Amino acid sequence: MKYAYIAVSRSQYSLASLCRALQVSRSAFMWQGRGTSARAQSDAALLIEIRRIHREHRQACGALKTWHVLRREGVPCGKHRVARLRKRDGIEANRKRRFRVIIEHHQTPLAAPDRLERRFLASAPNRAWVGDITFIRTREGWLNLAVLLDLYSRKVVGWAMGTRPDKDLALAALNMALAHRAPPPGLIHHTDRGATYSAAMYRDRLQAAGALPSMSGRKSAYDNAVAESFFSSLKNELVHHRDFPTRDYAKAAIFDYIEVYYNRQRLHQTLGYRTPEEVDGEWRNA
Question: What single-letter DSSP state applies at residue 259?
Answer without folding.
Answer: I
